[in-house]
Each structure stands twice: as structure tokens, then as C-alpha cells.
């Protein structure tokens, strides 16, 4: 899943936690571009626990938010992506 920059890191982490709960996601990982921050926000979630931290500057990498979602067979990819982009 890919989307543009986010404006509020804490609110996005809460949104991710809600999506994990609503869609029975087992694991989620990736990084986000936060408006006004030069570093990537790394997100790692196992079950309901979501950890975030800034890891490194984007440098020449494209500023975007990219997440990998892992779950049981039958995840509704379109619904999950819509919920994370909202």
C-alpha cells in the first residue's frame, strides 16, 4: 500500500491500530513521510501493538508512505487500503 505524506504521526499510528483491529491484520510494517519531518517514520505492528520511530533521512528516496500488511488468507486489500488512505 502506498500513499503520500501524512500530517500527524500520532494520529496515523492510531489509524493504523484501528485498521489492524477491524481487519484482523497479524503484522504491518513500513515507513511514512510526515510533513515537515526530514526523516522516515518507521511503523512496525504485531497484533494490536504499533511501534513508531524516526529512523533515517529520506535523502534521495521519494517521500511517500509505504506499508506492507500481513494477515491470514482472505484479507480485503481494497478495504484495508481505503481505510489507511482515508
Amount of helix: 25-40%
The succession of helices and strands, N to C, reads EHEEEEH
SS-derived structural category: alpha+beta
List the total number of helices.
2
Tell me what portion of residues adopts beta-strand conformation: 35-45%
- Average pLDDT level: 93
Work out the number of β strands: 5
Rg calc: 12 Å
| Strand adjacency order, main sheet | 1-5-2-3-4
Major sheet size, sense and barrel closure: 5 strands, antiparallel
List the uncertain runs: none
- Which geometry do the CA atoms define? globular
First and last CA, distance: 13 Å
Characterise the protein shown here.
The protein has 86 residues and is of the alpha+beta class. The chain has helices at 9-23, 77-85, and strands spanning 2-3, 25-32, 39-46, 49-57, 65-71. The mean pLDDT is 93.
List the helices and strands and how they pair.
Layout: E1 2-3, H1 9-23, E2 25-32, E3 39-46, E4 49-57, E5 65-71, H2 77-85
Antiparallel strand pairs: 1-5, 2-3, 2-5, 3-4
Compose a concise summary of this entry.
The protein is 28% helix and 40% strand. It has 86 residues and is of the alpha+beta class.
Amino acid at each position: 500500500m502506498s500513499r503520500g505524506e501524512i500530517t500527524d504521526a500520532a494520529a496515523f499510528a492510531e489509524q493504523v491500530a484501528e485498521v489492524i483491529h477491524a481487519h484482523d491484520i497479524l503484522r504491518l510494517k513500513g515507513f511514512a513521510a510526515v510533513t515537515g519531518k526530514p526523516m522516515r517514520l518507521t511503523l512496525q505492528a504485531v497484533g494490536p501493538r504499533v511501534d513508531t520511530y524516526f529512523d533515517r533521512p529520506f535523502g534521495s528516496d521519494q517521500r511517500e508512505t509505504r506499508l506492507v500488511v500481513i494477515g491470514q488468507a482472505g484479507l480485503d486489500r481494497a478495504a484495508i487500503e481505503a481505510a489507511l488512505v482515508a
